[in-house]
Amino acid sequence: MLKVFIDKYKLEKITPHGFRHSHASILFSIPSIDIKDVQMRLGHANPTVTMNIYIHVSKKIKIVAADKFAEITNF
């Protein structure tokens, strides 16, 4: 079913596991969602697994972190 959708819309190939990684990363990029929420959604016993394996630092997250740092330090 996934392959049919990918072929129909000429998308890059992604596995169901790839969707899981993307899902975690997108949730993590939303400031109001805590890592514990993502951990529970993925069914992990602890947040370490979520952070080390499933969360990919996006360009947006890097920019937000830099902006927050500048705001705190008045830099």
How would you describe the shape? flat
Main sheet properties: none
Averaged pLDDT, please?
84
Share of helical residues:
55-70%
Low-confidence stretches are none
Task: Output the structural class.
Answer: mainly alpha
Secondary-structure element pattern, one letter each: HHHHH
Q: How many separate domains? A: 1
Q: Please state roughly what percent of the residues sit in beta strands, choosing from under 5%, 5-15%, 15-25%, 25-35%, 35-45% or over 45%.
A: under 5%
C-alpha end-to-end distance: 51 Å
Q: Helix count, per DSSP?
A: 5
What is the strand tally?
0
InterPro entries: DNA_brk_join_enz, Integrase-like_cat_sf, Integrase_catalytic
Domain Tyr recombinase: 1-67
Pfam family, one: Phage_integrase
GO biological process, one term: DNA integration
How would you describe this protein?
One of its GO terms (biological process) is DNA integration. The protein is mainly alpha-helical and 75 residues long. The chain has one domain. 68% of the residues lie in helices and 0% in strands.
Q: Nutshell version of this structure?
A:
With 75 residues, the protein is mainly alpha-helical. The chain is built from 5 helices and no strands. GO terms for molecular function: DNA binding.
Defining traits:
mainly alpha, single chain
Please write out the topology.
Elements: H1 2-8, H2 16-28, H3 35-42, H4 47-54, H5 59-73
Helix pairs in contact: 3-4
